[in-house]
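Hi U.,

Before I forget, here's the chain from the pilot set. I'm dumping it here mostly so it's searchable later in email.
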Amino acid sequence: MAQAILIAAQAGRALAEAARRAGLRPYVADLFGDSDTLALSEAYRSLPGRFGSPIAADATLAAIDALADAAGSPMGIVLGSGFEDAPGLVAHIAENHRLIGADAGAIAALKDPFTFAALCARLGVPYPPIATSAPPDPSVWLLKRVGGSGGSHIRSATRGPAPEGHYFQVRVPGRPYALNFLADGRTIQVLACTEQWCAPSPIRPYRYGGALATGAAEVPLLPDALLSAVTEAVAKIAAATGLRGLASADFLADESGWWLTEINPRPGATLDILDRRSTPLLAAHIEASLGTMPTLGAQPADAAAAQICYAEREHAPVPDFFWPDHVRDRPRPGTVVLRDGPLCTVLALGADRQAALDSLNTRTARLRAALSAKKTHPEEAL
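Structure:
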C-alpha cells in the first residue's frame, strides 16, 4: 500500500493532488473542504477560520493528530499556506510529527520582516526598507501584516504608526515575478521563474490573482543577468537559513533593477502549473527536505497558467454545478461563498505564454457566465 502523508494548509487541494501524483495517500486538514479536495483525500478534517487570517492553533493541532491516528503511520506532514506567522505552532507540530519542508527556525528567519531585512542587508540583497513608526509620506509606503500571504493583507499606508502585527514597506517599481525553487539546506535548484498578477478588489488592491510559467522554448521572462542575480541572492538566503523543500521568492523587476519582497518557505500557488515534470514535485519536495537534491527532468514544452476566480456575488448556497475539468478547488454544493471570496481555480495550457493567457481568460469568462445563469440565492428563485 502507498505511504500516507499528512497535509495541513489554508487550502490543501493542490498539495493533495500533488501527493496523489507522487503515489502517496493524502490525509488533509484545511479551511474549505472543497469537493475535489475530499475526493483526493483518504481522510479529511475541517479547520476553523477565514482565508488570510491567522490559523487556529489548538484546532489545527487536534485535526493533525486525528488525521495521524487515521493514517496509522504517516511518513510525515507537509504544511502549506497559513503557517507563515506561526513558527511556534510549526515547532509544536514537529514535536509529534515528522516535518517535511521548512522548519520553525527557517520560517521565523524568513517571515519575521525585521529579521529578514537584517539578513538581506548582511548578504547584500536588495530589499525595500521597512518600519513600524509613522511614515513621513504615506503615499510612498505600503502596510503589510507580519506573516501575511496571498496579497489580501497589503494596503496603502495611512498616517500614524503601524498597528500591532503589521509593518510599513517602501513602494518600489517593477512587475511581480516569483523564483520557484527546491532547497536542500545548502543549495537550491530553480524550477521556473513565473510571472504573477493581482486581482484587485476595492478593499484588497494587491490580492493575488494568478501566475504563468512559460514554455521551454520561449524567450525567458527576464534577462539572464538579472535572473542570475536573483538566483544567487536566493541561494545565499536559503543556505543562511537552512531552508529545505519547495519554496518561492517573490520579487519586483523592471529595467532599473530588482527588489526581493519575500520568500515563501512552502509549496506555493504555482504548484498546479509546475508539477508537470517526470519527477513529481511532492516527491522532489520530500527528497530535498531530507537533504538530497533530486533530478527533476526536462521543463515542459508548453506554457501553463492558473488564476483564482473570485466570486462576483454571494453564492448562498453554491449550486449543484457541473465544473469543467480545468477547474480546481470546486466548492461543495450547499456551501456558502461570499462575494469577493475565492470561488475556484482555473487552469490552462498553451503553446506559448500568450496562448495560455488567452485560454485562461476565455475559460474564466465562460465559467463566470455559466455561474451567473445559476440561481445561487434563495430570493432569486422567487
